[in-house]
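During the reporting period, our protein records have gained a structure token line. A sample record is set out beneath this paragraph:
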Amino acid sequence: MKNNTLKRNYLIIMFVLGTINLMTLFGYYGSVINITTDNAVTNLEFIMGRVSQDLNDYADTLIRSADTISFQNRVYQFLEEDNYGKRYKTDTNVYSLIKSIIENNQYLDSIILYDRDGFDYQYEISIDNKEAKRLYQDHKDDARQNTFFYTMLNGIPYIGVSATVYSASDWNVKKLGMAILLSKDTHIRSEFSVYEGLANLEIIIADQTNNKVLVANNRDYENKDLASLDLINEEHSYQKKSVISNSDFLLVTALDKELLMPYARSFLYMAIIFILLIVAFFFLSVFVTNQTILKPIHLLIQEMKQMGNQTLRERLVGTKSPDINSLVGDINALLDRLEDYSRRVFNTQQQLYEAELKKQEQELYVLRKQINAHFIYNTLNSIRTLAIESGEENIEAMSEGLSSLIRYAYHPEEYINIFKEFQIIEQYIYIMNIRYHNKFAVSYDVDDELCDYKILRQLIQPIIENALTYGGGGVKGQLEVIITGKKEGDLLRILVSDNGAGMPEKTLERQKKRLAESIQDFSPKGISLVNINQRIKLYYGDAYGLEIESKEGEGTIITFIVPLLADGRIQDDKNSQAEENR
């Protein structure tokens, strides 16, 4: 039943896909049109930007030349001279200036200067007085400085710029004359020639004042009214318009829609054939897919459902399909990793449980020792009082020191200042020397900068106790113990050495093995080195612990390294880094 459902769903999917592809038939043609239109508009905007930039550069170049003439000292001195004889004498200087301006402007062909009476001076052009007067009358009253215009002179079309020349001493008041700069329209046509390869692109420059086409890459449009052109109708073309800077010239670029998409109908026929082929392929794939994919997947699903009620050790079996077999292999590999991960997680949880259990056992052991602490402390105070009354100073000092040791041992805080730890050790040694008649000599080599740091309580004192208890036997004279504390980066190194009896080699190996295996010792003899080692690992991490070296007859050295923090504590995520530092 479920296999039939899978087939039915697949057929529905194929039908939906076929329908979607058939619907694509109706949208494909529109998509082609839209894409072509978007590309055309994008290209048109790009071309418009390029042509507009070129023509604006063209206009700006002519304006710069016009400004140069308008504000040249030689030009207004020349026009300001009312004596024509003297004016002609300075004409050579003006001519050299005009010639230099023309030569340095690739678009400028000729210049005509007019004085305030309309008398003209022609440079690089020769026109009759009638044409010269017409130019003067047409542009002497131009409202703008640097006004662009289109004109025909001697049968040649020009783009012109009119610029007023003012007196330098009184710029806003005294008008000395006018300069006409002429540029042949061939310069603009050369800009159009870059786009000759685009047969359906039209570029037009029209005068906005009379809507007349001045220059076009298609000469048939010139001298016609811009609005009369079918090309300007938005139904027939895509077009962009912009005004050339500082002028009344309108730049129009247009693309004919009919010429733009001559192959659209062919695209439509190709789309129909393509869609029909896809539909045929879909129906054919239904049969092939059912045999090579659907059936193997159905078998795989059934087998995975059976595995859901079994253990992680079960694995999928292969099928006749190579592709499904690859999937089966990946699933089996995933199950292998899952089983390995579950095993490692279980082992980690077991280790954490055992570590927590050890810590609780040790805390329970300490708690048991604390039961009579209050009673012992009160008793020692009573002994100290009696000793003071009897004048027994040694008894009073021992009871006071022992009282301090008991307060230290059962204080609720886990961490203690390093130097306070050494003070407790000094009291402990004082009591031991009273007991054993000054048998022990202890010296310190501790960095002063350790005064701001803390360490786990009862970590150094038990090591000293171990040295005094087991190192003093068989030593003639005093047992010398040296306590060294050094700051090594972020770590604290404590080293306790003595010149005691030391250990035989077998005993040393046995002690090292017990430290490595962390076998706890709750015997009443005291806190063993194994228990100290276990406390270090529980509080600071497995990266830390005791190290012991000894030689029979020469003495013993016990060393441990712990993180050096202001509050004595270490975060779990620093354990791995500490292991590397060691």
Q: What stands out?
A: The chain has two domains: 1-284, 440-581. DSSP finds 16 helices and 16 strands in the chain. The longest strand covers residues 156-166.
